[in-house]
Design the sequence.
């Protein structure tokens, strides 16, 4: 069964550094998402992306965050200047036109 | 705004016993409802979903859930749990079939006793 793949599985970075989290959605999916889960807390919606533009974003998704679909297969989340509180598990998800979300296994981001 | 409440943070069940995980939602119209499972170190796997039609939905791994509009609930059930069911379970709601972001509950941690 096709899967959403995320790389790396674990990323450690220093505060103030830029990080890019990478995702390869399922190939025929059209809608792409990023969620995050701070340790011990619930999964939170960050942003949705369709037709090469952001369709919805949450309050968490401030100017430090950006998303991009640089080619036909990748979907990236960039954090420009990481803060300690950005430490979390970041999940990418994708879906077809009427289908449910399919999630990747996540990237654990640790900001030191 | 839509919201999801999972009132049980932890549930402990003996292997072979039945299971019910509670989920209540708040949304004005008919919601789209989902249950996801997260095993340690893993991503979120869809167990089942309700969009419309039959209010009792069957999912993978022997799980089922029943949508009760009068109670604003979408409880997850399994008649006999296995040790491999130990995981975190998340109920989620969307109002456009996933066209916007899902709103998740805080999750219920399921512990299986031998």
Sequence:
């Amino acid at each position: 069964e096709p899967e959403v793949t995320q790389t790396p599985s674990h990323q450690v970075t220093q505060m103030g550094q830029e990080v890019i989290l990478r995702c390869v959605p399922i190939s025929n999916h059209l809608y792409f998402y990023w969620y995050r889960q701070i340790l011990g807390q619930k999964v939170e919606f960050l942003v949705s992306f369709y037709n090469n533009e952001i369709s919805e974003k949450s309050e968490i998704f401030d100017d430090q965050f950006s998303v991009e679909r640089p080619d036909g297969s990748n979907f990236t989340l960039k954090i420009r200047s990481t803060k300690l509180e950005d430490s979390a598990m970041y999940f990418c998800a994708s879906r077809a036109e009427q289908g449910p979300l399919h999630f990747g296994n996540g990237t654990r981001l640790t900001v030191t | 705004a839509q919201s999801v409440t999972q009132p049980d943070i932890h549930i402990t069940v003996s292997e072979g016993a039945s299971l019910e995980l509670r989920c209540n939602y708040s949304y004005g119209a008919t919601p789209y409802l989902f249950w996801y499972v997260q095993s340690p170190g893993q991503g979120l796997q869809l167990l089942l979903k309700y969009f419309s039609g039959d209010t009792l939905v069957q999912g993978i791994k022997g799980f089922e859930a029943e949508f009760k509009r009068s109670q604003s609930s979408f409880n997850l059930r399994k008649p006999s749990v296995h040790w491999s069911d130990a995981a975190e379970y998340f109920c989620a709601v969307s109002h456009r079939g996933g066209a916007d972001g899902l709103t998740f509950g805080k999750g219920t941690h399921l512990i299986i006793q031998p």
Summary: Residues 5-111 of chain A form a domain with the Immunoglobulin-like fold (CATH 2.60.40.10). DSSP finds no helices and eleven strands in chain A.
